[in-house]
Amino acid sequence: MNPQSFRIEVRSFSDTDPAIRTKMSSTDYRIVREKGYAYLRIGETVYSCEDCPESLRLLEACAADSRTSTEDREWLALLKGSEDPLQAAQKLGIPCHGERSVILFRPAQPYQYSDLQDSIPLEGSDRMIPLENGDAVLILSMKRRTRAEVIEFVSAATETMESEAGISCCAGIGRPAASIEKLPSSYREAEAAIKTGKRHRMPGSVFDYERQTLERLADLIPEEEASRFRQEIVTEEAAAVLKGEMLETIRVFLRNDLNLSTTARELFVHRNTLLYRMEKIRRVTGLDLRKFEDAAVFRIIMSLRDAND
Q1: Which residue has the higher pLDDT, 120 or 5?
Q2: Domains of the chain (ranges plus CATH)?
Q3: Count of CB atoms within 10 A of residue 251's CB?
């Protein structure tokens, strides 16, 4: 905004003519017109200019920008737990009930916020807010959205950022909040999902808190106990085998619920090749991943290793 272009004057609310102050009352963002001049109050500051179309458009844009910034601050205060939820709902004019999820986007490099906005199509009451540290938070309505659709939506958004804007970005998804009082928990979970995903070197760039139960449980095991458990299974011989192609085979096998045929197709290998790899893993670890109990033990052990190595 260039105030001199339209001769906009700036003064404090207390220095404004009493009659104009009365007209403005306590309402921000409302433009008051009086005797050939237009006045806009934003907080304790008043902007005034000649009452002409160009100046009015500038004042209206200023009001819209400031209103948005104020709403963003209200949303952030709510998410961070520094605002009473019911009061925040009243100020923001939103219903207290209605399922919403909080998604935290964390770009890996400096970016233009407009590029992020262009990559994320919003609907209805969805709200996205930039954070001072460069992250952005999205409050996503769960109305007419399943959990799987939310994950697909966030994955598509991060892929679009990468392909169209060149922004490498990861995202954390908090659990759905049934009421506005639960939104701060969903926000904290979105932050925790990214930390857990990075700490455990989980594949992909979208981390869903609901799908990290095992990793979060593993994090509760003391380091000394975790080390002992790892050493029982991941011996030096096993560590030499459990890497690269073999480790990818295990991950795909577990992801496909121990289904040999599906895993072989996804890896583009013959079923006998996959069976050979399973047998090699059994020899070095003592665990037959084709058995549910052994697969569960192995999955936990690998989570401990990924968390603490």
Answers
A1: 120
A2: 3-69 (no CATH), 85-211 (3.30.70.270), 221-308 (1.10.10.2840)
A3: 14
Tokens 């100020």, residue located: 91
Contacts of 240 (CB under 8 A, 6+ apart): none
Residues across the chain: 309
Q: Which amino acid is at 43?
A: G
Q: Give 25's DSSP letter.
A: T
- In whole angstroms, give the CA distance from residue 42 to residue 67: 9
* Cβ atoms of 56 and 31 closer than 8 Å: yes
Strands 97-107 and 177-179: antiparallel
Q: 31 — phi, psi (to 5°)?
A: -85, 125
Angstrom distance (rounded) from CA 19 to CA 107? 49
Q: What is the pLDDT of residues 37-66, one digit of tens each?
A: 888 887 677 888 888 887 777 777 766 566
Q: 4-39, pLDDT tens digit by residue?
A: 445 678 888 888 888 888 887 655 556 788 888 888
DSSP-derived secondary structure for 35-62: TTEEEEEETTEEEEEESSHHHHHHHHHH
